[in-house]
Amino acid sequence: xxxxxxxxxxxxxxxxxxxxxxxxxxxxxxxxxxxxxxxxxxxxxxxxxxxxxxxxxxxxxxxxxxxxxxxxxxxxxxxxxxxxxxxxxxxxxxxxxxxxxxxxxxxxxxxxxxxxxxxxxxxxxxxxxxxxxxxxxxxxxxxxxxxxxxxxxxxxxxxxxxxxxxxxxxxxxxxxxxxxxxxxxxxxxxxxxxxxxxxxxxxxxxxxxxxxxxxxxxxxxxxxxxxxxxxxxxxxxxxxxxxxxxxxxxxxxxxxx
Length: 257
Hints:
This protein is mostly helical. It has a single domain (2-16, 28-225, 237-252), classed as Up-down Bundle (Heme Oxygenase, Chain A), CATH 1.20.910.10. Helix content is 63%, strand content 0%. The chain has 12 helices and no strands.
């Protein structure tokens, strides 16, 4: 799997150069900080479905040690969907309703989630499922690093959780990228045919993530052009979400110790 990990790193570098992130770099505080996070609403379906992607992926892994990796990854991300909802209320004042999420404006976001679930079920062995986790990790690292830096650079002052540096620290602290886990993954053997199959799944996952963010690029500089919610979902009190506190890697270690 070492060659697969190297290929994922190459794709990660290319992912970081897509138009969406270029647009974030060009954005200036004078362009209007209030409109800076207009793209967030369009991520709603994907963020909520992400928990199921991780859950389903874990159920497909049979090897005991690799299953531990998949489960740890899922548990590290547990509750992050609530962080997102909390942030979206702070950004937009309300949550999208079912009519909006399943409207044509959110089609590519939904398609991205479906594409990843398709790859999860198309996988014929554990190695592909683990490779998909590595793709999700690598795209998440790029996304959160760039978006958090973006928010801090333009002085976006709302007290966010999902798009906060503390969340980025959690993402960067995932065990998948610790030395022991890397050694386990790199030791996995495969034929050239198997490697080609896994790399196709890697490409499909990266391509799906790229399409979603590219579709949201135009919303970086203007308030969302998405149609209003069909059923007028009312603002939701953040206290109802029971958002779990963000803990840094150091805080989690202290809690365990």
